[in-house]
Amino acid sequence: MWFLFALLSALFAALTSILAKMGIKGVPSNLATGIRTVVVLAMAWGMVFLTGEQTALARVSVRSWLFLILSGLATGASWLCYYRALQLGEVSKVAPVDKLSVVITLALAFLLLHEPFTLKSLAGCALLGLGTLLLVL
Hints:
Blueprint lengths: L1 H22 L5 H23 L10 H27 L2 H8 L2 H12 L6 H18 L1
């Protein structure tokens, strides 16, 4: 089931890039990010209440709060940078560079989470890096 959700995530991320590029014309990138964030916020909290998960809020640990807040700050910084890049460049070049996050994520998962880094994942990272270079050059 995780694979289906990952594929849907990729589909929606692709739509995000295209729709953002179409909508950002004539709009300051930070304002565009702010508008997008309000929509995401409403959608996320709507799902929380729709599924009844708000009852678990009191049981979230301090450690989880800390890492979720840090994750939110990283997401915000990513979105601000992404929208500025979309405003300045072509989506067909910005999106592949943004997807280098996969390579960086695998390296960080190895270093910080001690997840295995195999020959297969190393080859995949190299191919992703090479593919990104081919797309943007």
